Model the fold of this input.
Amino acid sequence: MNKIRTAILLVILLVLVTAGVAWYVFGLHGGKPASDTMVVNQPARPGDDHVALANLPKPVIDAVKLAVPEGVLRDAQKEMEDDQEVFDVEGNVGKLGFDMKVTPAGEVFELNQQIALESLPAPVTEALKNAAPDANIRAIEKQNTKGRIIYEIKANDPQGKLTLEFAEDGKLLKRKGAAKPIQAPQPAPPA
Done:
């Protein structure tokens, strides 16, 4: 009876090990696939504009590889942007996501990447400290639209949720939610 139990346990162990190897080799773990390609096998969904990653045009794949070399694609769909067909491609670099809009010819229309706080340019880091000194950062996204870069920072501060947008030089472009902007003291009215 013990030999039968041992044999059953060995078969179960073999199945689990095989499944684990397949999970890694075929990129089902969400990390970088074992092969040199960044495309994860994902079929198109019927009834919508989703595109199977294996069916993306080569110039689109090349543009993504060039812009985000360590990226792993998760999803793609066709859409129209400014009367032009583009592929909206989503993926990850580690735990951080990215979203790109690429023309069928491989021209990058837009690239949005989640980034770490340490990756912010120094002027943006300083401006953030001044604009929201008590903020707890939730997410940072670097948005590049046709060469114009904006850093969007989502945070919580003592008054609630806050979204800030900065130019590369640290100029505050937009502030939404939570605490009011710091204002310079107003001179006292004449007596």
